[in-house]
Amino acid sequence: MTFDERALHFSCHDAALFGVLSAPATASARGVLIIVGGPQYRAGSHRQFTLLARSLAQRGIPAMRFDYRGMGDSEGSVRDFEAVGDDLRAAIDQFFSAVPGIEEVVLWGLCDAASAALLYAGGDRRVCGLVLLNPWVRTEHGIARTTLKHYYFRRLLEAALWRKIVQGKFNLAHAAGGFVRLVRAALLRPATRQGGGAAAAAALPERMCAGLHQFGGKVLLILSGADLTAREFSGLAAGSRRWRRLLGAPRVTLHQLAKADHTFSRRAWRDQVADWTGEWIVSW
Q1: CA–CA separation, 60 vs 66, rounded Å?
Q2: Helices (H) and strands (E) in the chain, counts
Q3: Tens digit of pLDDT for each residue in 224-250?
Q4: Which CATH number is 3-139+190-281 given?
């Protein structure tokens, strides 16, 4: 299907925000808002967001990607993913204004953009679905356990490591110190934040779990097999009865790409993500 692309200019409080709309000639009533994660802008790593938006538009699904305050071309001070709720609401307002026939929106996010989507979605009835890729649930405890399980133990089996040790090219004392620090972090239970009430006291994984519980729509979860962020999320979910119950519900669809890295940097991985996204959106 043919589609047009045009720049969007809108406001969030006193800051000007900029985005791009990929609008098919005949648009469905369900659109996709692509949320930027990390220190990126609306094109995404290796133009993933640009190509995803165009792929969706070719399927008849309107897609919008934008820079929230402090990122890309948008004005305002830099902020992290936990402080972009107003930006998301302003972007959805603009999306609905730019595509008159739109009735509901799916939020699509990779890494901490997936986390931002989970924290936001339950408070906006216009959001009907979430596409979450390698969600960021980082804690010192969680990444320590993940690194020990999926990096250190595998590293000990590599012949190259032992050759370096035998040849005296490996700083054993430095590595041992890092290993001890990881073990300590892995054994310590996560600390609770102080002050600020119940919401502030909850760690990020707990707040994300609460967000998923509050959100009643459908969820597509896509995890990379060669990514510590995805491994940390999987380990968290496997160790929590509440996470297991929520992710095991019929409304949640899970796909895994065994060899993919964090940003799905190869064309085959990127295209698979786009296909899964498009097929899932039109399946319900």
Answers
A1: 20
A2: 12, 8
A3: 999 999 999 999 999 999 999 999 999
A4: 3.40.50.1820
